[in-house]
Predict the 3D structure of the following.
Amino acid sequence: MKHNILVGLLLVLTFSSLTEIIAQKKYSKQEYIDTYKNIATELMQKSGVPASIILGQACMESSYGNSELTIKGKNHFGIKCYNSWNGEKVYYDDDAKGECFRKYKKDEDSFTDHSDFLRYNKRYASLFELDPTDYKAWAKGLRSAGYATNPQYTELLIKTIEENKLYLYDKEVEVEVLSPLQLEAIDLENFVIYLNRKVYTRNGVKFIIANEGDTYEAIAEEFKLRTHQLLKYNDLSKSDKIQVGQELYIKKKKSRADKHYPVHIVQKGENMKQIAQKYAIRLNSLYFYNDMDMKKDEQPIEKQEIYLRSQMRR
């Protein structure tokens, strides 16, 4: 009796596995491109990564959606775990045996993570200074920045883009975001106009840029604040003079920086106030995370690592 039950279970499991394999859709090249072209153009608009690059890399890395890694982990770009990944994982033989790769719940999550991976990684920041329709320059830049180990990666990517005419999708999109090098740590969902003034967002906190003739009192009144609130939000005192081009938060800063910015490397002449402003993080939180004395106005030294989030939350 037990033998019959075991045989039955094995048959069920075998049948389920076969059904899963049969049910797994095998994409043709055009089917794959048609499935993901819309998300590629949407991400180009939001992130600045060309749609041709997104689709070209996806086609190459996933074998047009048919690779084992894509089927098992919905990972279309071959992005490995790295230390920053806290999600699910899948193991696959690549440059070495049993390497850790990111696993996603939805295919679309892989595409979004790929754009974020490029946009919020300093290694690739210079790419966003390029023309978003210049796929050849982007392909060269990716290889130079170390995206892939294959010395022929640039040529293969360009060939994939041109064979499938993926460059046509770039022409349909007007990129809405600026280069990360121009915005530094600004997480910009573009901007809104408020009383004829541009209001930006960094780390979920709204801020404006001071114009000639602005005063703290006038800005506070414009945004229905008290002057002391505006000063407190920006770690300022009444004696601090307002400067043209100065960034001023009109909401309370966050207790920690955006997750894409866990650490800051101190540049020559930078102080804690400047770092707090750069990442829209409260000054007292910044001192706390780095075990520094705020009362003594302790300042960092050049090239020091400054934690922007609790080390437990990195």
Q: What stands out?
A: The first helix runs from residue 2 to 23.
